[in-house]
Amino acid sequence: MSAQKLPYDCLEHITHYASNSQPTLAALSIVSRDLNHLVVHYLYRRVCLKDGDQRCGSSLSSVLNNDTLARRVESLDLDSSLSASVLGPLASALSAMRNLRHIYVRDLNAVVRHDVTVLSVIQTLTNLRSIRILASSSSASRRLLDRLPAMQSITVDLAGNSARRIPELEQLLLRSRETLTSLAISGDYDLSGFLNQESVDDASHRYVWKHVKQLSLHAPPRSPALIRAFPNATWLSIDPGLTDFDFDDKAIVTQRLGLSWWREMRDDDFRYRLPRVLRRCIHLRHLDITLHQEVLVPAVRPPAIRWRHNIHNSPQLNSVFMALNDVKWDGKTLQDLRYVSVSAVKRKPDDYAFSVELNGSDVEVGSLFAAFPRLRAVVLALMETPSLWRRRARTSAGASDAGCSRELLTRGVDVAQFLRDMDDA
């Protein structure tokens, strides 16, 4: 049956199902006029360009020449260097995107330097709620931060020459204290210095973001300031590899914890720190750990070489299992733990040598299900195709736990989102 003969409501369902795939939407738009009419609404809702100036310029021209398309754009991501031929039209394109809710332009500071009126344009975007920005101590960056309204989501990539603190960024955070739900700062930013101002500020309530649920920090502040400022964060992602990071007796109220442990952290330091962090997470449901890429050793290597390779200066998969084993004997720690995921920065190929090494993890994974009664799934995303272990259902009332079963996930799957969907099901 051709697309022209399908009922219109079927075409609507097809379009809605494909709405999260830009390539699929682009293909559907040339099938028929009816599909094109339906697809255009979704196709221009998110404009994401990474292919350079030629494609970027043509897309901006489409928006400029069609006010209807411009009003449909809700998210704009331009992750590419912009030439002078694009910098000019971009300011006009932004003014036409009156329903824009999210913006990320990698060279947005260059746009400001090219045409300062873009600052006034951004102020007119009353629906803007989310921004990703390359922040620095430059005049253009600071003027842009100063003009932004209160945000729901802020992602900050710090430039290499950025200052330890940027007053305009901190003022934006203060303006957003009643609206902010997600904050991510990559880079060595002195957030502690900002948060600890409340000790000398009469209005200490200004430094509390009670609506923030998702928090991602490369250089987290000391735990008292973190807990006080973001008391309701349910997804916390931090890199505690820094020597000055530590937890005191304060509890961390978070349901999902993401930890990135890089090469500069020694393996023995990792096994010491991880249990200390986990013992503070009193309601943790999902533990997500990202390790360095050398977490699997080909099983075909001679034992002597494998033994030398395993004298690590960075954490390994076995270190995760050993640290969790140290925690499980507490009895009161991680009682609500439902999901554990371990990923590598660079995954290994799906070949026999690494598969044999990963197969040796079945016993350790099984012991996690035995140690944590509410654990539902463990995902090891160390190879291109992640492996998932699920808890088997009990065969009868009162019977002992039946262990776990293993399956393979799809390549490229977003493990965190997959587990969130499993938790919501």
TrEMBL record:
Gene3D superfamilies: Ribonuclease Inhibitor. It comes from Exidia glandulosa HHB12029. It comes from the Eukaryota. This is F-box domain-containing protein.
